[in-house]
Amino acid sequence: MKLRFSLSIGLLLCSSISYSETIFVTLEKDNAIAIVDPIAGKLVKTVEIGQRPRGIALSPDQKHLYIATSDDDTVIVVDTETLKVVARLPSGEDPETFAINSEGTRMYVSNEDDNQITVINLAENKAEKTVPVGVEPEGIAVSPNNEWIVSASETTNMVHWIDAKTLEIKANTLVDPRPRALSFTADGKQLWVTSEMNSTAMVIDVATKEITQTIRFAIPAVGQEKIQPVGVVIDAEQNWAYVALGPANRVAVVNAQTYEVEKYLLVGARVWNLAFSPKQERLYTTNGVSHDISLIDTQTHKVTKSIAVGRYPWGLAVKK
Amino acid sequence: MFSSSQFYSFFLLLLFLGINQNAFSAPVQEIKVAYLTQEKRPAAALSNLEEFVKDKGWQGAKLALNDNNTTGKFTGQAYRLEQKIVPVDADIKPVFLSLLKDKYQLIIVNLPAQQLVEISALNNQQALLFDVATDTDSLRSTNCLSDVLHMLPSRAMRADALAQYMRKKRWNKWFLVVGNTAEDRLYAQAIKRSAKRFAMKIVAEKTWTHSFDARRTAQSDVPVFSQVGDYDVLVVADEQGLFGEYLSYRSWLPRPVIGTQGLKATVWHKTHEQWGAVQIQNRFKALAGRPMVEEDYAAYLALRSIGEAVTRTKEISADSVKTFLLSEKFKLQGYKGRPLSFRPWNGQLRQAVLLAAPTSIVATPPLEGYLHPKNELDTLGYDQPEVHCQ
């Protein structure tokens, strides 16, 4: 009797945990987002949201979800409780990726076709300024101390360092061909950038803006041209960095101290973007071509599950 | 160093580019590129609705000029593109010599093979030439031009791309139909070479002589013409497009048409949208008001290659640009999912080839399973051991 009691309490605890984490996944070709419960390991539901949703992020207070609906030429604001669109932001044409500062007051959107970044005031939902950058800006990030906005232009092959106060470019770092995504380390001292065409990830020193490390990815029996690094994330302790390798269908696990590649984890087809669970005990990947997401245990570095979500999952955001 | 008028135009250019003096500290480096072409007479065409496009190639160069100058804002480099159009029937050679005299070391050449050979003979390695028009196999296998980089895939690369896909589909028996021009025969040669490489069998071959009575229609001619026994696909060699379109849906047997019509091997296509291609398709349309075609893509890549070399080396002489472009450091993004580079043995740009149906892309060879010890892109066209020129 006692045993059964404790068991049921255990189950209760489990089920209460299961409601404490939600993954929102943009589905590029379904014009929808998938809502996934990673603890239960299942797709909860799919909600139509707008044309060609790609970039996705939560507001710092987690009350709103921002989603770039590229073919509607806007970034929509979605209430995370009701899942209704509550506002549309003047993002400029064809928004794909964007970044939000840590206070949640400003959004920076890459306008790929116009070679510019649009700066949006989130309090007033107004575009404040556009900043001209290189050709085909894609990856964008804000430094943890909100000092820098960094933008990677895919054809110019540069990282542009935009001063968040003056909104002017202060420095440019030439990087390997077709840079895609970039991420700051939690301490704000390093910026990691991936190069799709050179199968590399580069570590840039934020103080000097120079490349200090170049990590090359090579997988036995996988053609080098298939190794196309895209998404990159680094854990808060800076023990591990994870790099999504696109059509190589693998995530590289990199020792963030020694810059050695520890292993390659086989996930779904054309893995693009990555996100941690709130406590970083799990890593989630979007696999565009196999139409699923993969769950990776960051303690054991094993892929534990894949969940079918819909057509062309692009990006993801994780809510506590 | 600069004449005052040059200096003045330079100053205007700076203003136009909106350069923030803080963005770079080095003085501006100017990169002079010439674009040499000759007016063409509209060729005979199957449809009068198909518009004659005069500026194939030039618009692609202009797009790359914009892209390079956007990058140049951050690196302190400004590109200038000079277009020289020689009238129909006029001699190209004096114009080329005047470009050399004006110290142009990087020249994009949109000319037929014969004229390319002529100006290369005059060049004496003074300029690096970017060929954006030819797909001639001999210039890539037996008579290479060491001062020329070829941006378009050769006929052999195109034929190999088709053959890889046919092999995969096991459509091994080919009926080859060849037009009556010299170019059609060169295309047919490339098809035969690929058939041998990929173990295809040409079970029948016929020449289309345009001798059928115009009062009769393709509906009645083609079925008679195409009664050659059984085959898997009809391969047509009609580069100008004078009869190939008649063959689909009209052959005696219900068989697909591939080659210069039907399923085409091409370097660019209006329906190509993978690997970020949508972005360049949009940018091109906004600039040129028409879809991008092969020569535009070739000229775009030529000037983008120059941009990559100059951005990374800060050197602008023909020698140093060539050295960088032929090195392993050069990897160009070309909206085809794999980095593009040059084959040092014949100056051919390595690239994937699109197999395009009229409104969709069917495959993008090299296909999976065709292996190569160095680079899978080298399964298309003349590989190093097959090339016999210095």
List keywords for this structure.
heterodimer, A: 320 residues, four-stranded antiparallel beta sheet, 1 helix, B: 390 residues, Rossmann fold, 2 domains, seven-stranded mixed beta sheet, five-stranded parallel beta sheet, globular
Helix fraction of chain B, binned, reads: 25-40%
Task: Give the full name of the CATH homologous superfamily of the largest domain in chain B.
Answer: Response regulator
Tell me the series of helices and strands of chain A, N- to C-terminal.
HEEEEEEEEEEEEEEEEEEEEEEEEEEEE
> What is the C-level CATH assignment of the largest domain in chain B?
Alpha Beta
Mean pLDDT of chain B, as a whole number? 90
What's the number of extended β-strand segments of chain B?
14
Strand order, sheet with most strands of chain B = 7-6-8-9-10-13-14
User: Counting H and I runs of at least 4 residues, what is the number of helices of chain B?
Assistant: 11
| Apparent shape of chain A | globular
Task: Explain the overall architecture.
The complex is a heterodimer of chains A (320) and B (390). Chain A is mostly beta strands. In chain A, 5% of the residues lie in helices and 52% in strands. Chain A has 1 helix and 28 strands. In chain A, strands 3-2-1-28 form a 4-stranded antiparallel sheet, with no helix packed on it. Chain A has a 4-stranded antiparallel sheet with strand order 4-5-6-7, with no helix packed on it. The longest helix of chain A is centred in the N-terminal third of the chain and has 17 residues, at 2-18. Chain B is α/β, with parallel strands linked by helices and 390 residues long. In chain B, the strands form 3 sheets. Chain B has a 7-stranded mixed sheet, with helices on one face. Chain B has 11 helices and 14 strands. Chain B has helices spanning 4-17, 58-75, 93-101, 113-123, 138-141, 155-169, 182-197, 218-225, 277-288, 294-313, 318-325; strands spanning 29-38, 77-86, 106-110, 128-131, 148-150, 173-178, 201-207, 233-237, 257-259, 263-266, 341-342, 349-350, 354-357, 360-363. In chain B, strand 3, helix 4 and strand 4 (128-131) form a beta-alpha-beta unit. Chain B has 2 domains: 4-153 and 269-351, Response regulator (Rossmann fold, 3-Layer(aba) Sandwich); 156-266, Response regulator (Rossmann fold), CATH 3.40.50. The A-B interface holds A 112-113, 115, 132, 134-136, 153-158, 160, 168-170, 172, 174, 176-178, 196-198, 223, 225, 228, 247 and B 18, 20, 22-24, 67, 70-71, 73-75, 276, 279, 282-283, 304, 308, 311-312, 331-333, 337-339, 375-377.
